[in-house]
Amino acid sequence: MIYDPFQEKAINYIKEGHSVIVSAPTGAGKTVIAEYVINDCLENNKKAVYTAPIKALSNQKFREFTAGFPGKIGILTGDVSINADAPILIMTTEIFRNKILEESESLKDYSWIIFDEIHYLDDYERGTVWEESLIFLPKHMKMLALSATIPNIDKFAEWIHSIHKKPLKIVKEDHRPVPLHFFYQCQGKVVDSLSRVGNLGHDRMKFYYHRGRRFAKKEHLKPNKPTSLIKHLLDNDRLPCIYFCFGRRRCEYLAEEMYNFDFLNAEEKIKIKANFHELCKKFDLTNEKRALMLEPLIERGIAYHHAGMLPTLKEVVERLFTSRLIKVIFTTETFALGINMPARTVAFDELRKFYGRFFSNLKTRDFYQMAGRAGRRGIDTEGFVYSRVNPHEVTYDELKRMIYGEPEMVRSRFNVSYATVLNLYEKYSEKIYNIYPYSFHYFQEKKKLHDRALGLMRSKVEILKELNYIKENRLTRKGSFAANIYGYELSLSELYEKNALEYLSPKELGILALALVFEPRPGCQKPQLSKAAKGLQNITEKTVKDIQKVEKKYGIMPPSKAYHFHLSPCLEAWMDGAEFSKILRFSVADEGGVIRYFRMAIQILREIMDVRVSETLKDNIKKALELINRDIIDAEKQLRT
């Protein structure tokens, strides 16, 4: 195989026995380096771990690597465990972090760890998992870290070297093998330069300044019709197109808006219909309502893809897209993390998205994570990126920053969970505070923020002592239980200590686990609850309220999560044996959301079962799992298909 210079450089470092961090644009070919490590490990009877930031990507990697290395690949994601002793083990970063802290012996035979998308360390909610994984990385493991372009990669590598004292080589690549050409739809026109966007604004609009930023006055704008944009792409031979939207309903609406287009010739229609029917049969989707709704669009080369869909139907769409028969796909941003799914063109429906707690203009790094899907290596000489620009929402300066600015630096989001604190306390006792100086947060931030972060860790230790998780510098029975339950440790542990879990039926255990993981959307109405759900609601409300009272005293934000029983009727019907299509009438979430939350509940139940609990509780959890983890909920079944 002929490698690009940056790939060859990284591989040579690996051959010399170095850990390597690679920073390169999306679509540059970073995966090739990971494949080299995997091949090398298999040829030399070594083992490697491959981590991905989301389960969907872990699943995709499992399928891809299994095709290339049959019988050599395993996967662990909490709700899936296939071939867990395989020489190449794919897992989410959370699972890897948990293994390091709880059962590091299980990693002694693994010589490499591959961190895909390591810039996720910057993620507000989950970034600390990457940081903890890097801090406590076993000394015998070499590391390959793959990242989108980040300007502070040298400092990042310097931090890793400072804590592990072993060579770490940096490989930076700014060149894309398929260059990108940018276009903009503004005031109903498609233009190919930012200056022309600015001219359109000046010709037709008035501007005002607020706090040094320029905004368009709320005057009438000519519409940027998505249908006009798609027609432009068709007329200019720029399909297939990945069209990014930041809302599930918007994806579906736009796909249906394109119904009057027909992108396929007679031969392609026959082929895609046959493929679609075959895949639907394989995944038991032949009579599924949404699959039937999608079929007329699929026959025209149109599809949509988002987290609210059945996982199996998403996979059908993905397979059709990689066959190059889907010409326009409307999708949310998770598609940007997909493997082997480039297109000639990427289009942005808008340039703002929800960042967990607020709406904001896209970060440059996020823009290029998605834009990088444009341009198919070996097929296209260039990729095309179209942005629909609404001057009422995005200023000219912001647009310029987004597309031509330098990607944002990766910043630490270090905020250890209670479970992590307990695992570290068990090992280091009162010396736990000596761990913080090893963090990227300590390396990167100023002393004022050091004191705050250390104070937060001390507060969590004090809470754990006050609530009797730590006593006389040792973990109590409750503390040992909580050390194994990441993210939901306090409320579950309080119920465990009161023996409340022991007396729950399998159905009640399922209801409890689901209520713990479920996050209702704003304004989401509560359904009528059963007697069992009401009883659990009363117990959990008091438990969480007591915990939050202590957290408030110590200034812990955000506080421990409340239980939400909105999906309880849905789960109870499912555990009674109802068909999936029938339980959705009880649901306040779409089908993909129901499956995701059911699978998260399964993961929680498995975590409880893995702790030293009574045989009675274990038996009840097993029964609950049997009742929940069936048919379409069974994630392993989909991967084995």
Task: Please describe the topology of this protein.
Blueprint: H1 5-15, E1 19-23, H2 31-43, E2 47-52, H3 55-68, E3 73-76, E4 81-82, E5 88-92, H4 93-102, E6 110-115, H5 127-135, E7 142-147, H6 153-164, E8 168-172, E9 180-186, E10 189-191, H7 194-204, E11 207-210, E12 213-216, H8 226-235, E13 241-244, H9 248-257, H10 266-282, H11 289-298, E14 302-305, H12 311-322, E15 328-331, E16 345-348, E17 352-354, E18 359-361, H13 364-371, E19 383-388, H14 396-404, H15 418-428, H16 440-444, H17 447-466, E20 470-471, E21 474-475, H18 477-482, H19 489-497, H20 506-517, H21 531-553, H22 568-575, H23 580-583, H24 591-610, H25 615-628, H26 635-640
Parallel strand pairs: 1-7, 1-8, 2-5, 2-6, 3-5, 6-7, 9-19, 13-15, 13-16, 14-15, 16-19
Antiparallel strand pairs: 3-4, 9-10, 11-12, 17-18, 20-21
Number of strands: 21
Structural class: alpha/beta
Proportion of helical residues: 40-55%
Number of helices: 26
Provide mean pLDDT, rounded.
91
What is the total domain count? 3
CATH fold-level name of the largest domain: Rossmann fold
CATH architecture of the largest domain: 3-Layer(aba) Sandwich
Q: What oligomeric state do the depicted chains represent? A: single chain
Extract low-pLDDT stretches: none
Distance between the termini: 31 Å
Q: What characterizes the major β-sheet? A: 8 strands, mixed
- Strand percentage: 5-15%
- Kindly provide the name of the CATH class of the largest domain: Alpha Beta
CATH homologous superfamily title of the largest domain: P-loop containing nucleotide triphosphate hydrolases
